[in-house]
Design goal:
Length: 138
């Protein structure tokens, strides 16, 4: 019996591709998933692994820190003892699907928003400033 776990999250560290002694490619990426809200919000860090031909492609060039992703696959949990002697839990997802969603977060602060005064409106376009109507007819 298998399980399927799907979630959206943010790449926490650039993806890495390594090769097993057999020559099989293994792509590793860590993805943060926020659960809860307010004071009860937590961040789950999930190690996502992709094997074989799919790991050899160009996907690693797009899985950069800050990129939003949708991931789906089989979830497993393991426990290990850290250097401090404390038992810790690790979540790992053997991915079947990794899709890029949204935009990568922009860290470049030198860019400024476009000034509205530089945007020219076509003279043939009428503007309609009606209040927002929340009643959807369907």
């Amino acid at each position: 019996m298998s399980n399927v776990f799907s979630f959206t999250g943010t790449v926490g560290r650039d993806a890495e591709v390594r090769y097993a002694p057999s020559g099989m490619a293994i792509l590793n990426v860590t993805v943060a998933n926020n659960i809860g809200f307010g004071d009860k919000q937590q961040t789950l860090w999930i190690r996502v692994v992709l094997f074989g031909k799919r790991a050899e492609g160009q996907l690693q060039n797009y899985l950069k820190k800050g990129q939003q992703v949708f991931v789906s696959g089989e979830l497993s949990q393991s426990e290990y003892t850290g250097n401090d002697g404390v038992t810790k839990t690790s979540l790992e997802l053997n991915a079947n699907i990794i899709d890029l969603i949204g935009k990568k977060s922009e860290t470049n602060t030198s860019m400024t928003p476009r000034d509205k005064s530089t945007i020219k409106q076509s003279p043939n376009v009428e503007t309609y400033d009606a209040p927002y109507d929340d009643d959807i007819p369907f």
